[in-house]
Design brief:
Elements lengths: L2 H13 L8 H17 L10 H21 L4 H15 L2 H4 L10
Helix pairs in contact: 1-3, 2-3
């Protein structure tokens, strides 16, 4: 994500004085709520969906994730990189390629 986009998200929140409501717990709840709204886009038909609605809900999820990263003082690239390394160890290509099995079933 570009720093310009991150700055826009943080400024939006700051301009409205919403940081006072953005506790980690509230942000986690908001991420879940917006994720459910994203899932709702596919509730009855996973092939015919409104892509504009999907984009809006996906953006809401990402905005709250950015807010949470900054509220917790984390580095987005670092936590994603660390998680991808863990995922690579749990899902080695030679065992996981083409499989939807969970790591403990490979």
């Amino acid at each position: 994500m570009k720093q310009e986009t991150i700055d826009e998200i943080l400024k939006f929140t700051e301009d409205r004085d919403w940081n006072q409501y953005h506790s980690p717990a509230n942000l986690a709840k908001s991420i879940c709520i917006e994720s459910a709204e994203l899932l709702e886009c596919f509730q009855w038909d996973d092939q015919n969906y409104d892509i504009d609605h999907v984009k809006e809900e996906l953006a809401d999820v990402m905005v709250y994730c950015v807010d949470m990263v900054y509220k917790l003082g984390l580095d987005m690239d670092e936590i994603i990189h660390d998680k991808m390394q863990k995922n690579a160890a749990k899902y080695p290509v030679d065992k996981a390629k083409g499989s939807a099995k969970k790591y403990n079933e490979l």
